Amino acid sequence: MGGRTRSGGWPARRIRFDRPGLRRAATTAAVALTLLLATAAACAEQRAAPPPSVQQRLEQSSIWGQPVLRIGVATNEPLMGEVRNGVHTGFDVEIARYLAASLGYASDKDIRFVEVHTDDRLEFLIGGKVDLVVASLSYTEERAKLIGFAGPYLVTRQSFLIPVAAESRLRTLEDFQAPGVDVCSSGSSTTESELARRGFAVKLVEDLQECVDGMLSGRFDAMSSDKTILAGFRSQHPQKLMPVDLPLGAIERICVGVPIGDTALRDVVGHFLKESYEQGRDGGTSPWLTAYNKTLGPWYEDGTEVTQPEPQDVPELVDFDDKASPR
């Protein structure tokens, strides 16, 4: 029977091997494998590459080679930034000293403390008059368009301070908003913006000491600012001034101000704030805690225990054991 094989099965089909097509497929597979291996090698190399060091970022910053570090601080805010017997002191100042020492400026001889007021802190940074600002500087989105921030190193809120004699008539937000009630605050502050938004009768001053003097003389009914600043003024007049803790404004994140284009300096400052945070997070001592207990702690939140907040957006850097001076 035609077409049958001798074994009785159907004729075997002949399969033609397209050798050029096979070569193309093999080539494509080889190229794909090469690319895959190259990608894997690149990823492995990227994973293996160590992060930059503190020293490398420091050398990329604007302070590299400077013999003196210029830090803007307040001189009129008790417990935060003030001058006593010719010496700068306060919580902000101690944080500034810690950062300066970490950056290689080990003593006050290597630091130039520059007096700044609330309304000229940004101006001093933008104009290059200071390298850092450590002066109760709250983060806001508007300010972040003009300067850089590292931190926060303290979280607080706005509040009020009043004469003890006014306790019976100033208890609620409505009491402070009543006609004839004059609330004193500083210009260009987050407190000023919040008070204006809520319709308070605000009397603006350049130096917050004027608010205190005005309350003690009967010219102002109250003052409003960060609770840290109010705690400082209360510590000077504990029998005459008292806090009124009312919800006002958003949480204030107190940060270190740096020039907006100096990301290297911001990274290094953030690194050392984070280092202090890590030292104190398990209940141990830290530069932050030492500064707080030495200055603000006994008066802030009536002595309630406060911890350092975790700094945000801190890149991983390889630290050095011996703090190298950038000079």
CATH class category label of the largest domain: Alpha Beta
Counted up, domains total 2
Q: Which residues sit in consecutive blocks of at least 5 with pLDDT less than 50?
A: 1-19
Number of strands: 13
Tally of separate helices:
10
Bin the strand percentage: 15-25%
Order of helices and strands: HHEEEEHEHEEEHEHEHEHEEHH
Residues in helix, %: 25-40%
Structural notes for this entry:
With 327 residues, the protein is of the alpha/beta class. The chain has 2 domains: 54-156 and 253-303, Periplasmic binding protein-like II (D-Maltodextrin-Binding Protein, domain 2, 3-Layer(aba) Sandwich); 158-244, D-Maltodextrin-Binding Protein, domain 2, CATH 3.40.190. It has 10 helices and 13 strands. A 5-stranded mixed beta sheet has the order 5-1-6-13-7. The protein has a 5-stranded mixed beta sheet with strand order 10-9-11-8-12, sandwiched between helices. Strands 2-3-4 form a 3-stranded antiparallel beta sheet. Helix 3 (91-102) packs antiparallel against helix 10. The longest helix is centred in the first third of the chain and has 30 residues, at 19-48. It is elongated and about 70 Å long. The termini are far apart. This is Glutamate transport system substrate-binding protein. Residues 1-44 form the signal peptide. Residues 68-299 form the Solute-binding protein family 3/N-terminal domain. Pfam families: SBP_bac_3. One of its GO terms (biological process) is amino acid transport.
